[in-house]
Amino acid sequence: MSEPKALTPTPAGDTYKGWLFKWTNYIKGYQRRWFVLSNGLLSYYRTQAEMGHTCRGTINLATANIAVEDSCNFVISNGGAQTYHLKASSEVERQRWITALELAKAKAVRNQAESDDSGDECPTSPPTSGQGGGARNSNSEVQSTLRTLGSKVEDLSTCNDLIAKHGSALQRSLSELEGVRLGGDTDGKIRQVTERATLFRITSNAMINACRDFLSLAQAHSKRWQKALHSERDQRIRLEETLEQLAKQHNHLERAFRGATVLPLSQSNPALDSKSSGSVKGDASDEDDENEFFDAMEDPAGFITVPADPKYHRRSGSNVSGLSTETGIDDQSLCDEQSLGSNPESPQSLEVEPVRKRRTKIPDKPNYSLNLWSIMKNCIGKELSKIPMPVNFNEPISMLQRLSEDLEYYELLDKAAKCQSSLEQLCYVAAFTVSSYSTTVHRTGKPFNPLLGETYELDRLRESGYRSLCEQVSHHPPAAAHHAISERGWTLRQEISLASKFRGKYLSIMPLGSIQCMFEKSNNHYSWKKVTTTVHNIIVGKLWIDQSGEIDVVNHQTGDRCHLKFAPYSYFSRDVARKVTGVVADKEGKAHYVLSGTWDEKMEFSRVMQSNKGENGTEGKQKTVYQTLKAKELWKKNPLPEGAETMYYFSSLALTLNEPEEGVAPTDSRRRPDQQLMEAGRWDEANAEKQRLEEKQRSVRREREREAQQAATLPEEGAEGVEVAEDAVIEDSFITDSPLKTDAVEIGTEASQASDESKYHKLPPFLRPSVSL
Length: 773
Prior knowledge:
The chain is of the alpha+beta class.
């Protein structure tokens, strides 16, 4: 019976080691692992020999929660990211581990709090002799008290082990006594039970006394420590007030110095001087709002942001000094943002006709069961666009409509068009690139693959001042062209082609092509590309989507650049999920703004006052430390409509994308019968219609390839006739005998007999089928 002895944990100084059983999965169940508790970290290995080279996992106890399930099982969880289900061989061993873990957790929390406090103080300032002696005496007293409490805890642990040991022996003796018959052995057994009961009573009394001593000692020192804590807190508050007064005085002196040296006396503005002198008191009263300090943040992008010196705040750098003109947002630009909706030149203020009320609800998503593996097992390694998928995996919009959803936060481009500074404008454009991913966090459905020549028009001139048009210009590989123009001074266009691979456990979608954004007023031209989208848990588990990669938003007019990094989700990372960080720099590489946030919630930006190279990071790379001002919100996600979980998690804009419109082209995505049937909840009919359209497109492609070979030998007039016939067949793909057929069927039939120019006369030249990327 050497197993219980081998499983007994052994303390070695501040380190605690021993064998435990860890839950792995439903197939293997609990597996025996070697656990080591040291410095507030619990690590485990498969064997003791692995301690020198291979650690299987580590959990930080400072933020962990320890829960006991039953006599031998307990759980350690770290905020949901890491959870260890552990089992000891006995209740005594479990109690030893629980005690050691709780002590290690308390110590880790205390050390973390002390490190946070020491970070707020200046470690290089030498204390006076009196203060140094008092600190040393206080430190020695605390250490002595901790040693005393530690010895008491060891006594409690020893008493607990003795109680468990004698209790087990007593229980065993009582069981033996029940099975003994009346006879000569009865007296001996009774005497043995009496002795063991006496030992158990003595041990219990010792346990009670040790608990009483520990409680009284802890209460006595708790009052003293509480008093010392209040004293330290009051002293810290007084020190902060003193530093605040010094910062204000320095701020005012610097302002007076700049006013005296930058402006000559003849050019000084009396109204400005009177205003600034009269607002000194108001600036001082508001200083608390600006002097907000933040914890240093370590980003995976390779830089650290810390609060800037109070002298760099906006109130200290007035318009006279020119600081706001050089480095960031001035008061005038902020006013432009606030007055954006009330601009008298805006089309909204001149609008007379009532704005159309859009729909806010679509039919609920039906609940159909489907054997996923029977479809996906033959698709591993293939491209997504070549896999025949039923509508059960789709959402009732096409890829062209998904591209149009990028304009949901068009207000960011409206604000960017108002900006005077190109660097500030770049911040809003970068926020716009991030906002386009916010609609994908819950959208695990696949959009419909557009047919070749399919279009989608989104006219929001009355409501939002922009108009958008998309067309599928290539089928294999799938490629789409998108163009949007706004009355508020910006133009957006993108050419997107998708490359996707199914890897069994996950699906990777890599968008190819670039996105261009131009502003009329400043002639700034920006371009960027999209990051990789990954759909996880394709076979088993709940589907979830992640965005990862890097984006460079480049201003081709000025050379400014914003580098955005989408951090991939990791079970072992302590950062927030879906994190995005970025730095806005000019053409010389000097950083002016730091962006941070998440792609599914919001983005903020902070003005950089100073930057310098810091210490080496975890991978040996040197991190840049940016001193920044208080962060301002750039973008925040709009809440989903009520009942969105039953409507494919569509946003308010997505709910209106399939709404019927007058005057749209016969090839518009709204007229797709399979898409309409799916939205109406008739999935069986939608599957049949989708199969019909795809088969017709495949046959058209084969016919087109055959006729292309023939056209190589035909005269020029014959080749033109072939091209017109091809376009007619493409449009005829929308014709169906389904009950949802509209007047577009007759329109499409007539148009199929017309020429290419007459059929696409409503479309701009860059979206006609003859144009390729």
